[in-house]
Amino acid sequence: MERRISRLSLYAGVILVVLGLVVLYIGYNGAATHANVVQQVPYLVSGGFTGVILVTLGAAALLTAVLMLVQAGLRDALGVLDGSVREMTEALSRREFQEGNGSTDELVWVTRGSGSYHTQECRLVAGKTTARVLPKQEAERSGLLACRVCKP
Fold this sequence. Notes:
Structural class: mainly alpha
Oligomer: single chain
Strand content: 5-15%
Helix content: 55-70%
Number of helices: 3
């Protein structure tokens, strides 16, 4: 949806800039056909101001389109970075416990959006790749409750 709006803004910006330049040319051409300054003023006012306003609006629409494209790219990159950080956190947590810095009895699994923590064998987390590994004390400190099924 955002990319569609960005594309629409891009097209509108190009059309407005071109239209503004055409109006400026028509105003200049009309003013240039008259030698008397009084006769040139209506062309300058209508063609000049309208043309400048259209070019300005077109430039603003082009800038909006560019900013929306950059924002979409950054959002995608942040999503990838967030996933990588989550994976690294889980890997480091597992590694710490495997190296003997903690007991696997103290290790609990938490799924996204869950308000409880589980043992590795719990049927509620079995096969879920999105489960995070945390020390039991950290899970309790963050307000998570023990699972009623596996009772860690």
